[in-house]
Amino acid sequence: MKFFILNQRYFVITGVALLTVVSLICAGAVDSWFWVPAVIFGLLFVVGLHDLHQTKHSILRNYPISAHIRFILESFRPEIRQYLLESDQDEIPFSRQARGLVYQRAKGVEDKRPFGTIEDVYKSGYSWITHSVAPTHITDTDFRVRVGGPHCKQPYDCSLYNISAMSFGALSGNAILALNKGAKKGGFAHDTGEGSISRYHREGGGDLIYQVASGYFGARNDDGTFSEEKFAKTAADPQVKMIELKLSQGAKPGHGGMLPAAKITAEIAEARGIPMGKDCVSPSAHSTFSTPIGLMEFIGKLRDLSGGKPVGFKLCIGHRREFMSIIKAMLKTGITPDFIVVDGKEGGTGAAPVEFANRVGMPMQEGLTFVHNALRGAGLRDQIKIGAAGKIVSAFDIARTLALGADWCNAARGFMFALGCIQAQSCHTNCCPVGIATQDKIRQRALVPEDKSERVARFHKNTMHALAEITGAAGLTDPRNFMPYHFMVRQKDNEFLDGNEAYPYLPEGFLVAETEIPELAEWHSRWGRASAETFAPKEIPFGPYKRQADDASKAAQ
Fold first, then answer.
1. How far apart are CA 524 and CA 511, in angstroms?
2. How is 461-522 classified by DSSP, letter by letter?
């Protein structure tokens, strides 16, 4: 008995072997139909023998045949969780409630909720809008902001909600076409992502934000360096309304990438300006500049080469001192970007190392607040517009982001949901079940651009309508008038802060003023360590910076 207990893991393969023998006997002695189970059980027995002798999976060696059930269940575990176990508020990474809201607005169906909120309004982190007893009614929901600083010759009136960067290659041709057609119909902008402008962008005819990343796709020489001639040609396209220089991406800041030669199609090669049959590398850093001043000079060059179109850069905040170095370079060179897009670390991506996605980069709200206040401190905020991205799918998300200092918002996954994304999280496998994040022609066929473009435009329109309603409820006439004090943030179960306390606007020009503010000693200390000439730190700290304590004591005297 002990022998059978210790070796019960082999019962399945033993049983399959016996059934194979019995089926073979019955096939010869009883009926030829028994050949069917004989073949099935025989094949299973062969699988079991293979399991016993393979060396890659210990569980298969110990549990031949039966262990495959574990791998089968694991393969669709996310779907089981999403459809059967997940609550409406589980954010993995977007809650069912958030996805449902996008689906409803994209389809133009009822998006109201009965019976009351399902949010835990007494939970730490919960935030809400303070409404007015004298609400307003807003009829024009085509909210726009003009992007273009003093050096810009072709400013662009940008919608307050646009499609964030997603490259052709990461997304299918049908998905790009549907997004761009939707942008055309809805009158908002579509960021190309670093994969440059494809034939599907051009066919859609919508406004484009041409992103220039470290690979310089669409503007590169054969050796991967930046080509002024090719950039000027690409930027001259009437569809291109703004140029965005990507320094880093929220989901994987500081990380480059490679598109293997096997995955490069003729269409991808055409869009990116790269050869077939050769790995396509996106370096982690730009080759055209290595200093803050170099960055500003490159932005000035891009603006000149584009004929004066708005040029800005996108980044996820890392070392705050480095961003201050960029600001110092602006002051020293007199060159300012027309806009800065702050990407939060909660932003999406087709694929990222887990450590980068989870633990590298600053979340959007903190990053946006820092950028906004740093520009205010340098006296440059009125010259530079700020865009923000990072899980922004609802009117409340937009309103709160505008209140924290943004001039407009971008969304990637929100518009993917509008296309029909079911959050299968298989973007990196080329097996997207709805034809969005795949280059498989058969899978792409599931996505019909004409139908989905209507949903994209409708989602934008209904979200802007919802933004108008929430703006009116606060007693405002334009969502750009939202300020931190329009929001409350719960810190603990029985405590909450005014938005001005949680995310205050710091004084204009305080970083460049002659007198330092003791309460902002940390800001002044970091500003003092920043340099326009280099991103490298002046000193390596092994403890608190002495200057903070010294300056605070001097100011108090």
1. 6
2. HHHHHHHHHHHHHTT-SSGGG--GGGEEEEEETTEEEEHHHHSPPPPTTTTTSSSPPGGGHH
Per-residue model confidence as pLDDT tens digits over 349-373: 888 888 998 999 999 999 999 999 9
Rounded (to 5) percent helix, strand, coil in the chain:
45, 10, 40
Answer for the pair 160, 408: CB distance below 8 angstroms, yes or no: yes
Of how many residues is the chain composed? 557
**CB contact at 8 A, 387 and 280:** no
Q: What is the token pair recorded at 78?
A: 């996310």
Residue 490 φ/ψ, nearest 5 degrees: -80, 125
Is the model's pLDDT at 549 over the cut of 60? no
Q: At what angle are helices 320-333 and 292-305 packed, to 10 degrees?
A: 60
Using alpha carbons, list the distances in angstroms from residue 470 to 127, 128, 177, 241: 14, 11, 31, 29
465 phi and psi angles, rounded to 5 deg: -65, -45
pLDDT of residue 436: 95
Q: Which CATH number fits domain 144-502: 3.20.20.70, 3.30.360.10, 3.40.30.10, 3.10.20.30?
A: 3.20.20.70
Distances (CA, A) of 42 to 34, 39, 450: 12, 5, 50
Model confidence over 139-183: pLDDT tens digits? 999 999 999 999 999 999 999 999 999 999 999 999 999 999 999
Q: Which residue has the tokens 């940390």?
A: 522
Which contiguous run of DSSP H or E holds residue 144? strand 144-147
Beta-bridge mates of residue 319: none
Tell me how far apart the alpha carbons of residues 328 and 163 are, in angstroms, rounded to a whole number. Answer: 31
DSSP 8-state symbol, 390: S
In terms of C-beta density within 10 A (0-12 exposed, 13-18 middle, 19 or more buried), how is residue 455 classed? Answer: buried
Nearest to 463 by CA among 398, 387, 405: 398
The CA-CA-CA angle for residues 463, 464, 466, to 5°, reads 65
Amino acid (1-letter code) at residue 428: H
| DSSP letters spanning 176-230 | HHHHHHHHHHHT-EEE--TT---HHHHHH--EEEEEE-TT-TTSB-TTS-B-HHH
556 pLDDT above the threshold of 50: no
Strands of the sheet containing 495-498, edge to edge, are 127-129, 487-492, 495-498
Question: Would you say 191 and 209 are in contact if contact means Cβ atoms under 8 Å apart?
Answer: yes
Q: Which residue type does 298 have?
A: F
**Number of neighbours of residue 115 by Cβ within 10 angstroms:** 5
DSSP 457-469: HHHHHHHHHHHHH
The whole-angstrom distance between residue 374's C-alpha and the CA centroid of its chain comes to 23
**Nearest residue to 143 via CA among 470, 485, 364, 484:** 470
Does the bond joining 93 to the residue before it have cis omega, within 30 degrees of 0? yes
Q: Show the tokens assigned to 241.
A: 């309304």
Break the chain into its structural domains and give their ranges. 1-75, 144-502
CA distances from 10 to 16, 20, 42 (A): 10, 16, 16
